[in-house]
Specification:
Length: 412
């Protein structure tokens, strides 16, 4: 027997990185009932090789600590991130010219992660020599939509020959905000893997640069945000297409980044808060008044008081030692808005990396496991707004309906 084989089988406590914060723990619980993975798809032009993509994926894994962890739910009743060495992020390469990013993203967000197996990331490469589509998916407890954008940037930096500096592990959002980390001496529970649900629908629509500029100018003139304008268009288009939206309040949940408040830069972690607006049925507001209503409804979402209340509420909930089924019921009671709409805003970096160009970006794509849910993602790249739609039961024509409502609103 070698000395390695004589080592105890129990995982070393020195591999434990830190306990999960309350929001991360909720995501861990939710994900054991329904996969709430998030994903992006990025189209890159310029000459690359598959080996270069593999090397870049390894480089970002070395840079970001949470790309080499599993979630240990058995150590004690508070789940912990555990470092696992020498486990590469899987890279699935698709060379068929008929491959579509929509289908591959649907596959990725539909496939559950195993919490106690590292890494909690996967990648797919729709590879052609001079044009590739890179898809990155992740467990929600280790990464949010903005983090995936920074991971994409780091991939492109590495692909274009830059060395990546290793980053330190960040504390949880709650700890950074000054909340107390919960502890436990109770025994933990083995993690379970969610059942694979039905395959979702995923699609995207790209606005022209002219349409996007017109929208930016008009929203500034009207004193509203792009997010509020899209929310108004979503409401009008959705209600014209789906009777159930006309006959009940439409609730739109909007995650919001708090990196600026927490003093974060480009670390990979969960750094979200969120708000919700409820639009009364068959409302007679004009488009721009509806946009103002949406803006006002989210105006306090990033206030320290609101964030503190949210953190306090989530901390109290997880301190009751929720079972997976209880967490799922909580999600269905609290996070059950018909729509989740995440706007990642304008790309926070230049889209050119040496000889490579980030041409298009579709993000974020994710589901919550809510009946008839609709997920909308927005990001602006190269001056063009990109919208994605993800749903297990999509409202047909929703994206084109949103585009048409926005076009009319900007030309009226």
């Amino acid at each position: 027997m070698t000395s390695q084989e004589l080592q105890p089988l129990e995982p070393l406590t020195s591999d434990l990185l830190r306990p999960l914060g309350a929001f991360e723990e909720l995501y861990c619980l939710f994900d054991q009932h329904f996969p709430i993975n998030g994903a992006l798809a990025a189209e890159i032009t310029g000459h690359t090789t598959v080996d270069q993509w593999r090397d870049a994926l390894d480089a970002i894994q070395r840079r970001h600590p949470l790309l080499s962890v599993c979630i240990d739910t058995a150590f004690n009743r508070v789940p912990h991130f555990r470092h696992v060495a020498h486990q590469h992020i899987p890279l699935r390469v698709v060379t068929s010219p008929n491959a579509r990013w929509q289908q591959e993203v649907a596959e990725e967000i539909n496939a559950p992660f195993t919490p106690d197996q590292s890494p909690l990331f996967r990648a797919v490469l729709l590879y052609q020599e001079k044009r590739s589509i890179f898809i990155l998916s992740s467990h929600h407890a280790v990464c949010d939509g903005s983090s995936r954008i920074f991971l994409l940037r780091d991939m492109l930096l590495s692909l274009s020959g830059h060395d990546l500096e290793k980053l330190a592990l960040m504390p949880s959002r709650e700890t950074l905000f000054g909340a107390k980390q919960r502890t436990s001496t109770e025994p933990g529970l083995p993690a379970v893997v969610a059942q694979r649900p039905a395959m979702p629908y995923v699609d995207g629509i790209k606005f022209t640069a002219e349409q996007t500029t017109a929208l930016q100018h008009r929203t500034r003139l009207e004193g509203v945000t792009i997010h509020a304008a899209i929310s108004a268009a979503l409401t009008i288009a959705g209600r014209s297409l789906d009777e159930s939206w006309r006959n009940s309040p439409l609730r739109i949940m909007s995650p919001a980044e708090v990196r600026d408040i927490l003093g974060l830069e480009d670390q990979c972690m969960v750094s979200l808060t969120g708000g919700e607006i409820s639009i009364p049925p068959e409302d007679s507001m004009t488009f721009w008044n509806l946009a103002r209503f949406a803006k006002d409804g989210l105006s306090a979402v990033k206030s320290p008081e609101i964030i503190s209340m949210m953190i306090d509420g989530q901390s109290k909930v997880v301190s009751t030692n929720l079972a997976v089924e209880q967490a799922d019921q909580l999600k269905r009671n609290v996070f059950n808005a018909q729509v989740m709409f995440t706007n990642l805003g304008r790309l926070p970096f230049d889209s050119t990396f040496g000889t490579l160009q980030l041409a298009d970006l579709w993000a974020p794509c994710a589901l919550r496991g809510i009946d008839r849910e609709q997920t909308l993602g927005a990001v602006t790249v190269n001056g063009s707004l990109h919208l994605t739609h993800t749903s297990p039961e999509p409202i047909p024509g929703l994206l084109t309906g949103i585009e048409e409502v926005l076009r009319k609103a900007c030309t009226s």
